[in-house]
Specification:
The chain has ten helices and 23 strands. It is an alpha/beta fold. A nine-stranded mixed beta sheet has the order 8-7-9-10-6-11-12-13-14. A four-stranded mixed beta sheet has the order 15-16-18-17. Strands 2-1-3 form a three-stranded antiparallel beta sheet, with no helix packed on it. The N and C termini lie far apart (75 Å). It binds thymidine-5'-diphosphate (TYD) and magnesium ion (MG).
């Protein structure tokens, strides 16, 4: 095959182009096309004759006659991981775990696989990034010097597949999918084509043998799983590590799960001896101010089934001719929208100001229920006046300035009351009935509009 036939593959969407362009023709992302060799055409039909045994013609049956077998699950015994997995690893399931380098992917998986091995299962840990000695060092550090987990330092796909076929483990970890390459492809290891093809082969092996395969994937600077999005549709479960490498806390979020709920999170603390589950995490993302400070507002976000209290910080400071809007852990486009709503409906102008907002602790808040807290934090910073002690707020704010209810508002309020918060400004529909005793100690101000919320806050000064 001619090596000179280059194709360009988009690192974002996996689309290809015959020549280099600044903009991907498929997804319109800029500077994402990277060069790779064209794959040989012959024998490339991976569902074709070469693997006929893997794809036999199946009988067509009505749904009612197909047995809906429950999935066989292997709980890892690490509660927070099992929670995001929906109860444990599923036989034949493929899990992709993504996250920044150094966040703890290898640590968590080694802990999980060791627990499974101890419970009598056959496991396999394929390491492509580290040597066996390095993995052994980690297991000593984790206090598992007697671990019986079989380790295979290997990066060639065919050899890995061979080992999987011969050992038939219950669970296999591939750390990481970016290091695996196949001889059958000419593109460079780590390229999109390699990662996609290797993941497809491993996925098919998982389905045909019943082995659960966990793929570790690195995240690129932009936050997409490198190799990238192309892997997400192939696998059953996509878990994502979040958190600040500077803080000890790590979140694992399920962003896709064919065997469980999405957006469920697991919370861990990185300790000297690996990751430990945090079973009562609601207050870990609050920073400890002894007295209230301007520009800080606590919100209750609902992650999966658990409410979490997160501090939203804002800093508003006079900016240059083109003021900056920056957000960490919150959506920037939404910030611009909220500033416009603040101006139009509450008369708070930040046009000539730099506005920075931050969700403390490296959490990513995706739900619009953060709107009210963001706006109150911004106003508080602008006025230089702190919100009252023990104050919380949540609720979505619409373009017309209306404050909309957040899902399961009462659960959020209960958590805040439990943690000793005193004052809450919430959407009217989320306010509890007058005689409800479970919010004792918490004074609740229901509001319909953003200007009303501002008024309430000014009245509390
Ligand atoms: P690691 O699992 O190697 O990260 P990843 O596989 O996601 O790249 O985790 C590396 C970090 O975790 C490293 O900075 C050291 C730290 N760590 C601890 O703090 N305690 C421990 O017990 C272990 C094993 C690692
Ligand atoms: Mg690693």
């Amino acid at each position: 095959m001619a090596k000179d036939k280059s194709i360009y593959t988009c690192t974002e969407c996996g689309g290809t182009s015959a020549r280099w362009m600044g903009k991907c023709p498929s997804c319109n992302a800029w500077n994402t096309l990277i060069e790779g060799s064209a794959e040989p055409a012959a024998g490339k039909n991976r569902f074709g004759s070469a693997h006929a045994s893997l794809a036999p013609t199946s009988e067509v049956l009505p749904l009612s006659q197909i047995e809906a077998a429950d999935f066989e699950r292997h709980p890892t015994g690490i509660d927070e991981l099992d929670r995001v997995l929906g109860g444990g690893m599923v036989e034949g399931g493929v899990v992709l775990i993504g996250g920044d380098p150094g966040i703890g992917k290898s640590t968590l998986l080694l802990q999980a696989v060791d627990a499974l091995q101890r419970s009598g299962m056959n496991t396999l840990y394929v390491t492509g990034e580290e040597s066996g000695a390095q993995v052994a060092m980690r297991s000593r550090r984790l206090g598992l010097p007697d671990s019986l987990v079989p380790v295979l330092p290997e990066i060639q796909l065919e050899k890995i597949l061979h080992t999987l076929q011969s050992r038939q483990p219950h669970i296999a970890i591939i750390d990481s999918i970016q290091t695996v390459y196949s001889d059958q492809l000419t593109s460079a290891p780590g390229s999109v084509a390699q990662v996609r093809e290797c993941a497809a082969h491993l996925t098919r092996t998982a389905k045909s043998t019943g082995t659960t395969i966990v793929l570790v994937g690195h995240v690129t600077k932009e936050g997409a799983l490198a190799g990238p999005r192309v892997l997400e549709h192939m696998v059953d479960t996509v878990l994502y590590f979040e958190g600040d490498t500077h803080s000890n806390f790590r979140l694992i979020r399920a962003i896709k799960n064919r065997f469980g709920a999405v957006n469920e999170i697991g919370v861990f603390a990185m300790t000297e001896k690996g990751l430990k589950g945090v079973s009562n995490p609601s207050a870990i993302f609050l920073s400890q101010h002894s007295e209230p400070v301007p520009g800080s507002c606590v919100m209750v976000t609902l992650e999966g089934s658990r409410p979490l209290l997160v501090e939203i910080q804002a800093l508003v400071d006079s900016g240059g001719p083109s003021p900056r809007r920056l957000s960490v852990g919150l959506e920037r486009d939404r910030l611009a929208m909220l500033l416009a709503v603040l101006h139009r409906h509450a008369g708070v102008a930040c046009m000539d100001q730099d506005v920075f907002v931050n969700a403390v602790g490296g959490v990513h808040i995706r739900e619009p229920a953060a709107d009210l807290a963001v706006m109150l934090a911004i106003t508080s910073s602008l006025r230089g006046k702190p919100l009252p002690k023990g104050f919380i707020a949540f609720g979505e704010v619409g373009l017309a300035g209306e404050v909309r209810p957040a899902p399961r508002g009462q659960d959020r309020l209960k958590e805040a009351a439990k943690l000793g918060f005193k004052v809450a400004v919430v959407p009217r529909a989320n306010a509890p009935k007058k005689n409800d005793k479970s919010f004792e100690g918490l004074t609740i101000y229901p509001v319909d509009r953003i200007e009303e919320a501002m008024q309430v806050v000014r009245g509390l000064d």
